[in-house]
Structures are given as C-alpha cells and as structure tokens.
Amino acid sequence: MRMEFRFIEKLDKYRRILRLTRRPSRDEFKNTGKITGLGIFVVGIIGFMIYLLFFFTGQ
C-alpha cells in the first residue's frame, strides 16, 4: 500500500513539472544543438588523443 502511495506522489510531481515546461524557440533549439555538438566533438578529440597516446607508447 505504501509503495502505491509513493508512486502516485511521483506521478503528481512529474505532471506538475510537465505543466511548467514549454516548447523551446527555434533559436534556443539551435543553440542547444550547437553546444551539445561541440561537447561531443571535444570529448571525441580528448578520447582520440588518449588513444594516440597509448598507441604510440605501446601500452
């Protein structure tokens, strides 16, 4: 019984958050995409540099 009550509380919290959200404007969406893409690129470059480091040191 207690678990069902917690589940209903969680659903109410999620419903409240969804009511407060709004659709992003085109500019917000573009900027979010650019920043996310840049972050993925940077993480990829760092990973590639680590790969090259291990490749050339022979480990």
Question: Can you describe what's shown?
Answer:
This protein has 59 residues and is an all-alpha fold. The protein is elongated and about 60 Å long. The chain starts with a helix and ends with a helix. The protein has helices spanning 2-20, 26-57. It has one domain.
What is this structure's SSE topology?
Elements: H1 2-20, H2 26-57
In short:
This protein is mainly alpha-helical. 86% of the residues lie in helices and 0% in strands.
Could you say which overall geometry the principal axes of the C-alpha atoms support?
elongated
Structural classification: mainly alpha
Task: Report Rg.
Answer: 22 Å
Strands, count: 0
Number of helices: 2
Q: How many angstroms separate the termini?
A: 56 Å
Strand content range:
under 5%
Tell me about the largest β-sheet. none
Low-pLDDT runs: none
Mean pLDDT level: 91
**How many separate domains?**
1
Element pattern in H and E: HH
Helix content: over 70%
